[in-house]
């Protein structure tokens, strides 16, 4: 890739390799600041301070909680957004050799470390771009956050970048297609009663069981990959009580909007069928259950072909650094711009990891972890090269 031979870019790439220990130190430092969904303020303040120290301009925290810093271009050119998300758990990072262990150390403290490293290398090497580069630590990527940070950045009327690059986790892969998801909380309700004295009335927990069984029997396509999961169930107060309510949280996913819509329809049929079956089971009872379905999460599906320029740029940048990347589908911050038909990818941040979203999560930089920040920089520069 010819952009890698430009003097300022070559100097920044070299800096990312020689100063790799600095990058790891940032990864550890930000990971040890708690940032669960909707409580990211402490880590956001720390990232804002780091952005300011690295010379980014107009550093601010927007009204939703995203931290944004700018590196203005020297001419007219495309705007590129480089983003990572700050969720994590309040733990100390444990180090064993080159392995770092802590919840969130890879997903996505690694992404934040890459952002900081790229911003620092560009500043120290005085790298020029024609257009503005936006460095963003966005909130709400995980779980109940429902991508609220990137949704806000792409809200109606907001200026949109020409290219979006998210750095998320470890490895060397590219997310070029967005796995959409719908999440629901289903709650069956009734008056409840004693397990013996009130026996013969419909039972919310039994209805929930019927619904779970029906959902588990739904047939889904393998291509496009489409999945379902009942992840949380709750209800009941004691072993000898007919519960007054029972609920479950359900996750439905597919990279195909049509397949996701079809699965959602069959899920709703399963929920309604379970209600009807449980009420019909006790025809002599004057009690009838009700069901409520709350929509608690929506991540739009979308994507682009591997022939898209932003995907080809990322693949070429990987080859120029001496490794081969592969494309795939996942659910990331890039879902939002992809669903709008805008050029977007999510890339891994280098190194290796296992146990994402668990207490046993670890990240290992190995001997080539610096390739992650180098890759992010090279993609960025190839998309907005002229200074």
Brief description of this entry?
With 387 residues, this protein is of the alpha+beta class. The chain is 33% helix and 25% strand. The protein folds into two domains: 2-178 and 301-383, Zn peptidases (Aminopeptidase, 3-Layer(aba) Sandwich); 180-299, Alpha-Beta Plaits.
Counting DSSP E segments of at least 2 residues, the number of strands comes to 19
- What can be said about the biggest beta sheet? 9 strands, mixed
Content-based structural category: alpha+beta
**How many domains?**
2
How much of the polypeptide forms β-strand, as a percent range? 15-25%
Please provide a written account of the structure.
This protein has 387 residues and is an alpha+beta fold. The chain has two domains: 2-178 and 301-383, Aminopeptidase; 180-299, Alpha-Beta Plaits (2-Layer Sandwich), CATH 3.30.70.360. The protein is built from ten helices and 19 strands. It has helices spanning 7-18, 20-31, 41-53, 109-124, 148-153, 204-216, 257-281, 309-320, 335-339, 371-383; strands at residues 57-61, 67-71, 80-84, 94-96, 99-101, 133-137, 163-167, 174-178, 180-189, 193-194, 226-235, 241-242, 245-254, 290-299, 302-303, 327-330, 344-347, 352-354, 362-364. Strands 1, 2, 3, 6, 7, 8, 15, 16 and 17 form a nine-stranded mixed β-sheet that branches. Strands 4-5-19-18 form a four-stranded antiparallel β-sheet, with no helix packed on it. The relative contact order is 0.19.
């Amino acid at each position: 890739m010819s952009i890698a031979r430009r003097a300022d870019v070559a100097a920044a790439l070299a800096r990312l390799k020689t100063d790799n220990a600095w990058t790891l130190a940032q990864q550890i430092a930000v990971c040890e600041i708690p940032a669960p969904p909707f409580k990211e303020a402490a880590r956001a303040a720390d990232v804002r301070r780091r952005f300011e120290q690295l010379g980014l301009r107009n550093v601010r925290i927007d009204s939703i909680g995203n931290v944004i810093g700018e590196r203005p271009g020297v001419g007219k050119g495309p705007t590129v957004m480089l983003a990572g998300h700050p969720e994590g758990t309040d733990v100390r990072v444990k180090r064993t050799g080159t392995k770092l262990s802590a919840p969130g150390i890879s997903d996505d403290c690694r992404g934040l470390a890459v952002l900081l490293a790229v911003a620092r290398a560009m500043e120290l090497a005085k790298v020029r771009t024609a257009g503005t580069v936006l460095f963003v630590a966005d909130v709400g990527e995980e779980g109940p956050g429902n991508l609220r940070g990137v949704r806000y950045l792409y809200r109606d009327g907001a200026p949109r970048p020409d290219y979006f690059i998210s750095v998320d986790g470890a490895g060397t892969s590219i997310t070029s297609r967005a796995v959409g998801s719908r999440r629901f909380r289903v709650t069956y309700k009734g008056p409840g009663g004693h397990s013996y004295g009130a026996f013969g009335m419909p039972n919310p927990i039994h209805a929930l069981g019927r619904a779970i069984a029906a959902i588990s029997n739904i047939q889904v396509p393998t291509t496009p990959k489409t999945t379902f999961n009942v992840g949380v169930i709750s209800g009941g107060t004691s072993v000898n009580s007919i519960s007054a309510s029972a609920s479950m949280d359900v996750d439905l996913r597919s990279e195909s909007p049509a397949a996701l819509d079809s699965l959602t329809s069959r899920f709703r049929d399963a929920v309604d069928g379970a209600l009807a079956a449980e009420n019909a089971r006790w025809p002599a009872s004057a009690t009838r259950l009700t069901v409520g379905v709350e929509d608690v999460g929506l991540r739009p599906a979308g994507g682009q072909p591997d022939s898209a320029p932003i995907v080809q740029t990322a693949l070429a940048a990987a080859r120029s650094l001496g490794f081969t990347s592969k494309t795939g589908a996942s659910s990331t911050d890039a879902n939002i711009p992809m669903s709008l038909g805008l050029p977007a990818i999510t890339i891994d941040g280098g190194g290796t990891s296992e146990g994402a979203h668990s207490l046993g999560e670890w990240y290992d930089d190995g001997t080539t972890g610096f390739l992650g920040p180098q890759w992010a920089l090279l993609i960025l520069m190839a998309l907005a090269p002229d200074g």
